[in-house]
Amino acid sequence: MADHLGRRWGIITACAVFSVGVAMQNALVWGAFIAGRFIAGMGVGMVSCCVPMYQSECSPKAVRGFVVGLVCATSPA
């Protein structure tokens, strides 16, 4: 997705997907809650793929590996 939309718009789209999932989790119906959890998880997955690419493009050459490694080390996998 980040290759087609661009890194920035990919992150924005992923945040929108996550927001839709969170809104669905506020429903009082179990089916909507479970679907919201799934959609929110997809949004988190998209963000965790797009952010390291975006940070590696924006960070200076001297600290690029440290920044990307720090993000990957702190993400819950």
Write a concise synopsis of the structure shown.
The protein has 77 residues and is mainly alpha-helical.
* Termini separation: 21 Å
Structural class: mainly alpha
Fraction of residues in helix: over 70%
Shape, per Cα inertia axes: elongated
Mean pLDDT: 86
Query: What amount of the residues lies in strands?
Result: under 5%
Give a count of the beta strands, DSSP E runs of length 2 or more.
0
Radius of gyration: 15 Å
Major sheet description: none
Q: Spell out the helices and strands N to C.
A: HHHH
Q: List low-pLDDT spans.
A: none
Structural summary, described in words:
- Helices cover 82% and strands 0% of the residues.
- It is an all-alpha fold.
- The chain has one domain (2-74).
- α2 (7-25) packs antiparallel against α3 (30-58) and α3 runs antiparallel to α4 (64-74).
- The protein is elongated, with a radius of gyration of 15 Å.
- It starts with a helix and ends with a helix.
- The mean pLDDT is 86.
Layout of SSEs?
Blueprint: H1 2-5, H2 7-25, H3 30-58, H4 64-74
Helix pairs in contact: 2-3, 3-4
Task: Give descriptors for this structure.
mainly alpha, 77 residues
